[in-house]
Amino acid sequence: MKLLSIILPAYNEEENINLSYNVISELMYNNSIDYELVYINDGSKDNTWDRIEEISRDDKVLAINFSRNFGKEAAIEAGLKMCNGDCAVVLDCDLQHPPDMIISMYRLWEVGYEVIEGVKVSRGKESFVYKLFSKIFYSSISKVTKFKMDKSSDFKLLDRKVINELNQLPEKNRFFRALSYWVGFKQATVEFEVQERVNGESKWSFGSLIKYAISNITSFTSAPLHLVSLIGVIYLIFATLLGGYSLISYFTGNSLEGFTTIILLLLLVGGTITLSIGILGIYINKIFEEIKSRPSYIISKKIHGKTKVKVYE
Ligand code: UDP
Ligand code: MG
């Protein structure tokens, strides 16, 4: 019988551990699917890990505890590395990704699809500013990556072949949502409605979302660097025109005018140069991080249901 791994990153989700465990276990039992639940506690500050330890009495649970908060991308990466399934689905443990959809995804996998993505038909309850920014972010990232990502989510089911490919990637800065397109393979989509969060609250602040957007765009594509070069070319054209104009003014005796123009040009040029250096800086920082080659997460404890092996204790 085939094994399905269900990967659940959890950060401050103490109320959602038992809930997700019960809902998913029942669902798998009712549909006669052999499964394992891979819970990754991403350095929660509440009792999430205690709840996970409790349910790890069930030998279907593989529990992983990070030494601190490393972020959802790292949790997904760890889940994919540790899972044992013939396929694996990544799911938010706040149940905003409806577990029922796993069955539709699994059926598509059974008929031969290798990457099955949950596509959001509604974005759930989100503020206007959040919606606007995510629209800007996804339309720009779709443009530069050529992947249609506007309704994309981390809710995906992957075949073992795909998991192995992702696990082999050496990069530390990962963007799971885009990488799963990048790997290729036979892709399918399943539509779902983002559910209301039952317990707890979203971990995203406005600042962390902006950081997430910048980090993901720059770790996935060098398009912003090309933009800097393009701005350079546009400058050169303007500089040539304006230079010509200034020379003509000089020879015709009108060169003292144009104080405002100079101020505006200085501000504009200064601003754009600073921005360009900033963009370069972000990429240099990425190179620096990759070169340091630090792991993207550290595991302080791992419990596998049946054998209860604890490492690094
Ligand atoms: N999460 C995580 N590490 C983090 C932040 C979030 O593992 O640093 C998990 C979180 O527990 C949840 C999922 O990622 O299972 C999605 O997070 P959240 O619900 O806060 O995001 P939203 O649904 O608001 O986009
Ligand atoms: Mg959520």
TrEMBL record:
Gene3D superfamilies associated with the record: Spore Coat Polysaccharide Biosynthesis Protein SpsA, Chain A
UniProt-annotated location(s): Membrane
Transmembrane segments: 227-248, 260-284
The name this protein goes by in its record: Glycosyltransferase family 2 protein
Keyword Transmembrane among record annotations: yes
InterPro entries: Glyco_trans_2-like, Glycosyltransferase_2, Nucleotide-diphossugar_trans
Keywords, in A-Z order: Glycosyltransferase, Membrane, Transferase, Transmembrane, Transmembrane helix
Membrane topology of this protein: Multi-pass membrane protein
Pfam families the UniProt entry points to: Glycos_transf_2
Domain Glycosyltransferase 2-like, chain residue ranges per copy: 5-159
